[in-house]
Amino acid sequence: MQFWESVAIALRGLTVNKLRTFLTMLGVIIGVASVIALLSIGKGFEKGFSQQIESMGINVLWIIPGNVDIFGNGEDGPSSREARRRPKSPEPLTMGDVEAIADPVFVPDVLAIAPEYTGNPNIVTRGQREMDSSITGIVPDYQSVRNVTLVMGDFISQAHVDRRARVAVLGSSVASELFESYEYPLGQMIKLNGTPFEVIGVLAEKERGIFGEENNKILIPITAAQTRLYNAGAFRGDLIVSTIYVQVVTQDRMEAVSSHIDEVLRERHRLGSDDEKDFTIISQAELLQFGSSILAGISAFLGTIAAVSLLVGGIGIMNIMLVSVTERTREIGIRKAVGAKRRDILLQFLVEAIVLSLAGGFVGIGLGYGISALLPQLIPDFEEAVVTFGSVVLATSFAVAIGLFFGVYPATRAARLKPIDALRYE
Fold first, then answer.
1. Low-confidence residues in the chain, pLDDT < 50
2. pLDDT given for residue 411 in this prediction
3. Is the pTM of this model over 0.70?
4. What is the Cα–Cα distance from 45 to 420, expressed in whole angstroms?
5. Within 13 Å and on the Cβ side, how many CA atoms surround 28?
6. How many angstroms separate the CA atoms of 306 and 399, rounded?
């Protein structure tokens, strides 16, 4: 009963000067709203990153030429490189490597394998229209490995690859750039670097990817890219490829398959156990973990910035509570004269500070939700702001802690007032 009586007294005290109370709460409102909104941005980007990784294929390993430490984990850092011998002449990835990896005797548990070849320049023309696009030579399994879907037409077939056919599948952005909405692109001719290709399909639109614009690409048979469009060259009798995508049967076999591929490529590239690799194997899990750790750091940084505004709001609470103690000195003296104890006065002003911060916190939660709902419309390429229960609890708890912390000194000062001095105060 004593606690709720203190709450009632605190509410009456706060409603005496509504404008001052609102301005005091404003710092907490802005702080809580900022914490929720900024954390929702971080969570939104993290969710979008995960969806983009998953949309690029399920259980996929990427093999690229060169020893690249994209994660900065130090495994291939300077200290380890000193202990390894650099290969005399790093070898490129080739179709021979693709065939070796596809052999279930050497690398079991591989569901599909999709090499690709990219080159430069990438000039696309149709009549008077000209644009730059990413032109990629691929194989039929690319569709399943990279999770590609068509909106119309057909995909690259093995027959197209075998005869180096000049056919192309367009990304949605390329199709809309080269053709009017009323035009039917299938069967039309376009020129890639001056070489005519027939359009046989159009890809479904994808969200903007982390590795470039997925909709601004053109897919052609890998053999046509290697020999007709570009001069890919050969190494030991096998045509060179840019990247090899390997789809594994299940997630738990990713590490084992990666180890098998490492052994096969080391043997084919004539690398000993002490030689530095001239290739890099990347898994989705590594990419996801790497991206998530970066985004988590960004979220923490954004949350810290927002917390500063909460701290400022707490200082405002302490300031107004000190003013309130001064204004209500006679009231405190009268309460003590009729029997109120020090802890009663202390509780009264502590509750008042907490009510201020809690009320501001609840308003800030609503404002934070509203800002989060508007963010996707204000930030380009930002799909969704994710407001989590944890961010709401964190912001609210921090607001209460701020009110309690900054309310202790004014409440203690009020509780220590002597009744006779308080009654004499003018």
1. 74-83
2. 74
3. no
4. 61
5. 33
6. 12
